[in-house]
Amino acid sequence: MPESMQLYIADPQLEDHARQLADRWGFVVSAQPPAEFGLLLDEQGLSLKDFSEPKLHPVRVDFLSGSSIYRKQHGGGKGEPIVKAIGLKGHTDYHVVDATPGLGRDAFVLASVGCRVTLIERSAVVAALLEDGIRRLASADSELAGRFSLHHGNSAQVMQYWDAERVDAVFLDPMFPHKKKSALVKKEMRIFQQLVGPDDDAGDLLSPACALAHYRVAVKRPNHAGALNDTPPTMAISGKKHRFDVYITKTA
């Protein structure tokens, strides 16, 4: 799926916004929907869609969904394994780098419990979706949206040459190749997986992540998968479908 993909404008009044997106991310604006995969800009924001299957819902970064708001209203997920894995307890102004943000769902949990979260995304399409999600979140909750920052680039390189503020923890959730018949993968999410593909170079992230993180690195893995890079973690926190391998870089 090419990065310079077609951006279909559903509403002519959004043309200026579409042109801005095209200039920023290298998309091709079109008044006609593409034959298959493409981006859709409508009153709900930016999304990725398979136009060849009209019944499929578009994929978007939605920090304003019912599940996200419910999670925020009920403590933001402080008891969730990911929060324990990144080592938030006992810290304030905790800065986490999410080097494989995907659609930002885990990052939202971290921001909801008070972390400042830097997202590093190498795909221009995914970065644009994340930026759009943060923009829409800002209209409803500017304080929460302000906890996010977004960098477009290769995470391994960005972390290796990091010259910004201190990073307390790094979170990694590499895209893991799913079994073709897996019932866990919704059709809509298959569109996203076709876009980003499996992170075959995910092993390149662990070393720079450990060098960057002041306290720890947390790696999300399916329960059946081995450790990233076959590197044994300091400890692991298990959930129903996933576990979090934790690499301690410094004792708090």
TrEMBL record:
Any Pfam family the entry gives: SAM_MT
EC number: 2.1.1.242
Classification via InterPro entries: 16SrRNA_methylTrfase_J, SAM-dependent_MTases_sf
KW Acetylation (keyword) present: no
A single GO molecular function term of this UniProt record: methyltransferase activity
Catalytic activity: guanosine(1516) in 16S rRNA + S-adenosyl-L-methionine = N(2)-methylguanosine(1516) in 16S rRNA + S-adenosyl-L-homocysteine + H(+)
Binding site residues for S-adenosyl-L-methionine: 105-106, 121-122, 173
Matches recorded under Gene3D superfamilies: Vaccinia Virus protein VP39
Sequence similarity: Belongs to the methyltransferase superfamily. RsmJ family.
HAMAP family (UniProt xref): 16SrRNA_methyltr_J
Protein name, entry field: Ribosomal RNA small subunit methyltransferase J
Organism from which the protein derives: Alteromonas salexigens
Gene: rsmJ
